[in-house]
Specification:
It is built from eight helices and nine strands. It is an alpha/beta fold. The protein folds into two domains: 81 residues, Winged helix-like DNA-binding domain superfamily/Winged helix DNA-binding domain (Arc Repressor Mutant, subunit A); 115 residues, Rossmann fold, CATH 3.40.50. A seven-stranded mixed sheet has the order 5-6-4-3-7-8-9, with helices on both faces. A two-stranded antiparallel ribbon has the order 1-2. It starts with 11 loop residues before the first helix and ends with a helix.
């Protein structure tokens, strides 16, 4: 998902690793640990130390060979590189269990993603308040977009409704769709889709069990 907002040409795999490094740095910062080495990061993630150093060389940050990297500086460098400071507004379409869970996930704001609206077509869900945001009927989305223009939609509707809903979002000038549905969307090239393959990730994890 982060590659949609990048200013520099960094691969998706590197972006994913930098995000994991940031998790570790956040934990170290909360524990008031001043320095961290590439070996410590590599050990925690069970990857090669040289890969960590290679990734960190893409940042405007210099570590000390014997001491390590200053945690706060390295953390800030990752945030600057990945564009955390650039706020991105988004809506969630589909207020089922997954949509509500994502709406409750406050950590999005730490990474520059601000959820400003939730939408559904189920009258049993519309009107509910999730994390200080009211679930609105999908019919109100066009009006909402006129007052609150956004380019990102997080799609969590049932699979059978995914294509139709995505086409509707595209017609409202949504440019990026973070697709959590088990459906491959067929949209024009001007709409970028990031497929969050939850089941694929699970099967990678359990393949050799």
């Amino acid at each position: 998902m982060y590659n949609l907002f990048m200013k520099r040409n960094i691969s998706e795999k590197v972006i994913n690793r930098l995000t994991l490094y940031h998790y570790i740095l956040q934990d170290f910062a909360e524990k008031n640990i001043e320095y961290i080495s590439s070996k410590q990061i590599a050990t925690l993630l069970k990857i090669d130390d040289s890969q960590v150093r290679k990734d960190l060389n893409l940042l405007n940050n210099s570590g000390k060979s014997r001491v390590g990297y200053i945690v706060d500086e390295l953390k800030q460098s990752i945030e600057n590189t990945l564009g955390f400071e650039k706020r991105k507004k988004a809506i969630i379409v589909g207020a089922g269990n997954l949509g509500m869970a994502l709406a409750k996930y406050d950590n999005f704001t730490n990474y520059g993603l601000n959820i400003i609206g939730l939408f559904d077509n189920n009258p049993n869900k519309t009107g509910k308040v999730i994390n200080n945001k009211q679930v609105l009927n999908i019919k109100k989305l066009k009006e909402f977009m006129q007052k609150n223009p956004v380019e990102i939609a997080i799609l969590t509707v049932p699979a059978q409704n995914a294509q139709e809903t995505a086409q509707y979002l595209a017609s409202l000038n949504i440019k990026y769709i973070w697709n959590f549905t088990p459906k491959i969307l067929d949209l024009d090239e001007n709409v970028q889709v990031w497929n969050e393959n939850l089941m694929g990730n699970f099967l990678q994890f359990t393949y050799e069990m």
